[in-house]
Design a protein that fits this description.
It is found in: Cell membrane. Belongs to the DoxX family. This protein is mainly α and 134 residues long. 68% of the residues lie in helices and 0% in strands. It is built from 7 helices and no strands.
């Protein structure tokens, strides 16, 4: 039996799992900035760069979690993570493992993939017939 025949039916579902898990972890950054949970030393003003980032992480993460407007939201969040990497991490050091930006890079490309591949079958978009992967 070929491994591809066993795994192929699960590929769309695993795309949904990737979207759900990555958005849950991503949302924790927003809840930390905006809601102070888990406990955080700073509460940035909402109209600051960190406050807007927190709103994008919280609201965008929630939309991505349920799979609503997944493609445009994922594209925006991918851009946010690219921006975050070059503003906050790259100036510290050339190497992502040393500048703390490896998570930002990973989120950037996971969200970019979701923007192109769609949210998978376990999403509101798929239930509405929009944006589901083929």
């Amino acid at each position: 039996m070929d491994l591809r025949t066993v795994t192929a039916p699960w590929a769309p579902r695993m795309l949904s799992v990737l979207r759900i898990v990555s958005s849950l972890i991503f949302m924790a950054h927003g809840t930390q900035k905006i809601l102070g949970f888990p406990a955080n030393a700073s509460n940035p003003p909402l109209l600051s760069m960190l406050g807007i980032a927190g709103l994008l992480e919280l609201i965008g993460g929630a939309l991505l979690l349920v799979g609503l407007f997944s493609r445009p939201v994922a594209f925006i969040l991918s851009g946010q993570m690219a921006f975050a990497y070059f503003i906050a991490h790259a100036p510290k050091n050339l190497f992502p493992a040393l500048n703390g930006g490896d998570a930002a890079i990973l989120y950037c490309f996971i969200f970019l993939y979701i923007a192109f591949a769609g949210p998978g079958p376990w999403s509101i978009d798929a239930q509405r017939g929009r944006g589901a992967s083929s």
